[in-house]
Amino acid sequence: xxxxxxxxxxxxxxxxxxxxxxxxxxxxxxxxxxxxxxxxxxxxxxxxxxxxxxxxxxxxxxxxxxxxxxxxxxxxxxxxxxxxxxxxxxxxxxxxxxxxxxxxxxxxxxxxxxxxxxxxxxxxxxxxxxxxxxxxxxxxxxxxxxxxxxxxxxxxxxxxxxxxxxxxxxxxxxxxxxxxxxxxxxxxxxxxxxxxxxxxxxxxxxxxxxxxxxxxxxxxxxxxxxxxxxxxxxxxxxxxxxxxxxxxxxxxxxxxxxxxxxxxxxxxxxxxxxxxxxxxxxxxxxxxxxxxxxxxxxxxxxxxxxxxxxxxxxxxxxxxxxxxxxxxxxxxxxxxxxxxxxxxxxxxxxxxxxxxxxxxxxxxxxxxxxxxxxxxxxxxxxxxxxxxxxxxxxxxxxxxxxxxxxxxxxxxxxxxxxxxxxxxxxxxxxxxxxxxxxxxxxxxxxxxxxxxxxxxxxxxxxxxxxxxxxxxxxxxxxxxxxxxxxxxxxxxxxxxxxxxxxxx
Amino acid sequence: xxxxxxxxxxxxxxxxxxxxxxxxxxxxxxxxxxxxxxxxxxxxxxxxxxxxxxxxxxxxxxxxxxxxxxxxxxxxxxxxxxxxxxxxxxxxxxxxxxxxxxxxxxxxxxxxxxxxxxxxxxxxxxxxxxxxxxxxxxxxxxxxxxxxxxxxxxxxxxxxxxxxxxxxxxxxxxxxxxxxxxxxxxxxxxxxxxxxxxxxxxxxxxxxxxxxxxxxxxxxxxxxxxxxxxxxxxxxxxxxxxxxxxxxxxxxxxxxxxxxxxxxxxxxxxxxxxxxxxxxxxxxxxxxxxxxxxxxxxxxxxxxxxxxxxxxxxxxxxxxxxxxxxxxxxxxxxxxxxxxxxxxxxxxxxxxxxxxxxxxxxxxxxxxxxxxxxxxxxxxxxxxxxxxxxxxxxxxxxxxxxxxxxxxxxxxxxxxxxxxxxxxxxxxxxxxxxxxxxxxxxxxxxxxxxxxxxxxxxxxxxxxxxxxxxxxxxx
Lengths: 504, 475
Hints:
The structure holds 2 protein chains of 2 kinds.
Chain A: H1 3-20, H2 24-54, E1 62-70, E2 75-81, H3 83-102, H4 110-129, H5 133-144, H6 146-154, H7 159-187, H8 199-204, H9 209-226, H10 235-242, H11 245-270, H12 272-299, H13 303-324, H14 327-358, H15 369-372, H16 374-387, H17 394-407, H18 412-440, H19 457-475, H20 478-496
Antiparallel strand pairs in A: 1-2
Chain B: H1 3-8, H2 10-28, H3 37-52, E1 59-61, E2 66-68, H4 70-94, H5 103-122, H6 126-144, H7 151-182, H8 187-192, H9 198-215, H10 222-230, H11 233-256, H12 263-286, H13 291-312, H14 315-346, H15 357-360, H16 362-376, H17 382-396, H18 400-425, H19 440-458, H20 460-473
Antiparallel strand pairs in B: 1-2
């Protein structure tokens, strides 16, 4: 059996297993086992992928699996992975695993919670392994809809409003995607040939430039909404702030990456001419995301809002780098997706743990937490330093690669916009250090906080997994960037073959 | 007429027979044994449904007035399955004391309308079409007024009969213009003489208006909400699912055969009506608090989607419409089944009564959620596939903006469907509806629709069968 099928089957079996359980203890153990298997499977996939590549297999996609589903429309259930999807799958495996342990004490309707969470995860896994646009879109929507229940039932604050806003905005995004995908389907193939949804086959064809001009914005914005593209990012802060811990982790950590990955894999890869032509519009929007997100994070007082705006800024950087369309920047974009996924998951996990103890997320009400909960405090500092791009952590590698790649463009527009976006590094440092200063250092403001317990074993599993991954990428980025680069090369080649340039 | 001809007409003949059998049984039963009619009729109808699936030959009877082929048989079977589920769902309600006297009426009237729909689908000329249509409509008005001691139900009946009379008049006028301008009422002959002359375009517009009433397309939808609200819940689900499905079936056949020649003219009209129907249906659905009215407006919006497939104008459009109607039948019956089960046991029909339902009746809430997701077009349930293929067929004809508007409308519809999900799963309620256990028939009906919602999407075979049959009609 093809290993990729397991990525869908294991979550389904886990869901089935959870439905058989009776209470929190059983369901969390089943989930942990299922997602633990999934994590191991992700690493096995990385290993298998690397050994295939070192054995000299140069096919664009490996472990291909193809089953004809709707013959008359030529819809396939087609799977396959390259270095980029393998990296994303590993990220998802890690974050979901950590997310299960971060919700170890989910008292209210635990079975339903874990079922929805794992359904969401299976959608994400399915999305990353699909190479058929129809299956991809199917998994995309499967990943989005459980969010409504997860936020609406288990969230905090104005959860119903946030859940509805998030779901509707993301569904509006998928409305645009639907147009994009159907357009690609009907226009990619020259007349007389059977239509196809297969990304690899479409990439060998040429979509007429007029149609590309029409379809590219739909596809880009459709995915961009999920990637928190300005001005469609407004669902993200509210959604993240209201969501329960594990959902924030999964959503900011993985689900938002669906946007970046989709833009990269569908919008830019399949419609390179239009991408070149219209890149400048979206470069401006993404650099607004980057800078505006960072500035917004400075003025927030709620920990989750700070981190949500920081996610807007960092995910904006992903789209920004993808739009630069050269090898280095795109490599940086992928590393940034992974780095941000891990780091923001860690942040949300910590915020959830701190909130569970202090019952507040407002930084002004807290202080000196480092003295009472040193483990969580130290990990928070690590996450913060990774976020502001300190060498040794994944954030540095990602941002460095992105800005070096962006600066390779010699024209004024790209250079200016790179400098503008790069200013976000400084702003990031401001809000991270400000939070660390108020939250962890200084006097303890509330006597109640003197008796807080430090992290429990399951919380340590959750956080240490993520910290390990962040430092691994930070200290040894080469295995990751090699894996990505190999798969990136043919894509960048395809982009560079285009002679058309945009306004700038 | 020989035996093999009878076999090809088996849907209509068996239904007629069944209506008569029910009538005779009813006459011979003592008053206190009337409830026995229910299991007898259910088993008869089950056998009828199964026989419907036996292979059949295409044929042409009564000098071309009646014709049948594999696609038409398929449509009738789809309707049969839907009716079977509705019958299962109405058992509890029929057993109530107040309905004891008139159980057989329900079945006879319902079977009569189904005969009408079958004749309408199989019609080969406008006369048979019109007879079928009337037979399908008038008994429904009696059904809508079934609980006539309630003024709302009586009102629903009278509203339905008046508006259908009006629409039938308009439709007949259209047909008479078609006859006058082409010299025949036979579909095969009309299609040869149908062109872009103003008179024939006018004839089409009148004809389409009449059909738009039946399908409750905007701006001919005004009767829908009141009738749906007033009629007994199972009649409402029959109206919104079977009646609408049959109208969609015959409309798409006629649009793809007779009126094909004036397609360039009617596409603009259909475009506009599709946008209006989807948008207005959705916007009105948002404000509804009564579950029946809510589903009524949602079904208006759903009818707008059907027009997308008609606009597609190719075999893919035909397939996607039939497939969509099939999926819609199951999804809507899932939702109606839950509303019916709750309304029959507790008498509650307002959305506020659904607050906290998941805590007490988790299975019903889950089925309701899946049905609503299917109506909204969310994967992995079947509605996603139905909508996707409809949109694909519209896109294949180049209507990308229409697809965009339609998907945005699907998003709006998701909003109000989620309101119900929110009521059931999120809202807190001090006194949620108490737990109740439905009887076997209701549960079977609900399980059937739930199964359909799951299986129809993933089981691509069904789509492929419909597709292979559609190619027979569209060349």
